[in-house]
Amino acid sequence: MVTVFISYAHSDEKLKDQLVMHLAALRREGIVGVWHDRMLKPGEHLDHAIEAALAASDLIILVISPAFIASDYCSEREMVRAFERAARGEAKVVALILRPCRWQNVPLMNGSKLGDFLAVPKDGKPIITWSVLDEAFDDAVTSIRSLILDSNQEASDPSIKTIPATVVVQNTPTSNGGNPVRGVRSSFRLPRRFTDLDKDTFVDDAFEVMALTFKENLLNLEQENDQVRTRFQRVDALCFTSSVYVEGNMAGGAKVFRGGISRQDNNSVYLSYDLSSARNGHNEWLSVETDSSEIYFKAGGMPRFSGRQREDQKMDAEQAAKYLWSTLIEQIESRIG
Q1: Which pLDDT belongs to residue 53?
Q2: Distance of CA 94 to the CA centre of its chain
Q3: What is the pTM for the complete model shown?
Q4: 185: which strand partners?
Q5: Separation between Cα atoms, residue 77 and residue 304, nearest integer Å
Q6: Residue 10 gets which letter from DSSP?
Q7: SS3 of 60, please?
Q8: I want to staple 239 with a disulfide (CB 3.0 to 4.6 A). Which of 160, 252, 257, 299 is the partner?
Q9: Which pLDDT score is estimated for 79?
Q10: Residues of the chain with confidence (pLDDT) below 50
């Protein structure tokens, strides 16, 4: 799995969030894990944590905009460090052109310029100038995927290797009258052993998907219902809250947070109808489980039914986000129904 570091200006955060959503397709393929500074945890030293994440990354995406170029931190620290690692062959750098600006001639080390490196989307056309933003992000992510796979043919899942059951032997006499043995590929696969880092990365990425899903669904509720108003609050890297009001009165809300219930469990995700700051109780929770081939979430509370489908099956990040959102909607419907 390739670790992707996203460097961006905070004024571009909403569009950065859309990039993260489009990269989720690559994450589901097992190609990438994504890191950005909103994933910092309480108590972490800002500069040290960012430097460590940048040093551990395999691919660095620079989200280029006037604000990025104007930012000393982005341009003179993160971008410089990115190209230093690229020069040593330790990482690759992609410039994602977000907004129109004079990015091509931004100077780098050894007389090179930003325009000398790969820029996406196609022809370096700024994302916001596309008529459909999703098409722009999809074009950019498609190029990023190709770059990763071209660099490492096993990037889609480097820990799982298909083992040939028979080696191809050409021009070698055999017991069948001298015909060569044809190679046959087996479906046998080596079991994968997931590390703590794999699990942490899975939950880091998934929690961001959950936050974005809740945020977008709240906006959709407002657009579809004139009497509904909503609030989304990102408390910190490990917690967010969502509230729904009907005609100005609270109809329901939920706090979603990661870990904190017990010292042994830092990766489970909890949902509580209690919107206070306390993180010592929950109404639903998702545990992180593994088998021989994947990491997934599993509902830890009472199994619920969605139509004829029990919600106690394996869930990826998007399915887990949808499940938790449905838990909030059930609470609201029970109150106003």
Answers
A1: 86
A2: 17
A3: 0.49
A4: 164
A5: 49
A6: G
A7: strand
A8: 257
A9: 92
A10: 154-190, 303-311
DSSP 111-151: G-BGGGS-EESGGG--GGGSSSHHHHHHHHHHHHHHHHHHH
Query: CA 58, CA 1: separation in Å to the nearest integer?
Result: 9
Q: How many CB atoms lie within 10 A of CB 134?
A: 11
The ranges assigned to domains in the chain are: 2-151, 196-336
In angstroms, the Cα distances linking 297 to 41, 202, 316 are 21, 10, 6
In terms of Cβ atoms closer than 10 Å to its own Cβ (0-12, 13-18, 19+), residue 288 is buried
Query: What pLDDT shows up at residue 26?
Result: 92
- In whole angstroms, what is the distance from residue 157 CA to residue 28 CA? 11
Amino acid at the residue 213 = T
Structure tokens at 35: 């890191």
Q: Which of 261, 252, 254, 300 is nearest to 279 (CA)?
A: 261
The answer to whether the Cα torsion of 279, 211, 306, 243 is positive or negative is positive
d(CA 158, CA 44): 31
Give the chain's length.
Answer: 337
For residue 231, give the amino acid letter.
R
What the block records as the tokens of 192 is 């994968």
Please give the pLDDT value at position 178.
Answer: 40
Homologous superfamily (CATH) for 2-151: Toll/interleukin-1 receptor homology (TIR) domain (3.40.50.10140)
Closest C-alpha among 6, 1, 2 to residue 20: 6
